[in-house]
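User: What would this chain look like folded?
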Amino acid sequence: METSGGIQASLGGRYATALFELARDAHAIEAVEASLATLRETLAGSDDFRALVNSPLISRTDSARAIAAVAETMGLDATTRNFLGVLAENRRLRDLPKIIAAFRTLAARHRGEATAEVVSAHPLNDEQVVELKHRLRQRVGREVSVDLSVDSALLGGLVVRIGSQMIDSSIRTRLNSLAHVMKG
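Assistant: Here's the prediction, encoded as structure tokens.
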């Protein structure tokens, strides 16, 4: 398996690689990816879930029990549920966002896609996402999987990162550049 690009260099990357290999061997990459997307949305939207994942005060046993109950309620696939138990036992649940991002990159590579992290000032509608994917596909020459997030501090525009390449068309950056030029 090709894991260049530094994914295995981090602890989260090593966990993501292990999960990817388990999912690949079980022919469950899509199911695991869907479960991880659900986890990502829950992390973004639930203060209680973030507290469970990040709290150092919860014992390993209690953390494992709680994460198993939550995973069952969320309807996550068996591979992901077991993996979350391992993370809880190893006190690595706090690394879940990094693991999810690295897994998405590995899954996209497996499908022959590039992965783009896209930050916008406002949520993009479906038409905008389709157009963005089309333009990125033209730029990189292959299918592109997008990881969308919102940062209202950008004021407008987008920041797109594909691998080590970054395209920053945000209004915040343009205003900062203009201010720098005006200073002389």
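The two ends are 51 Å apart (CA to CA). If you want, I can go into more detail on any region.
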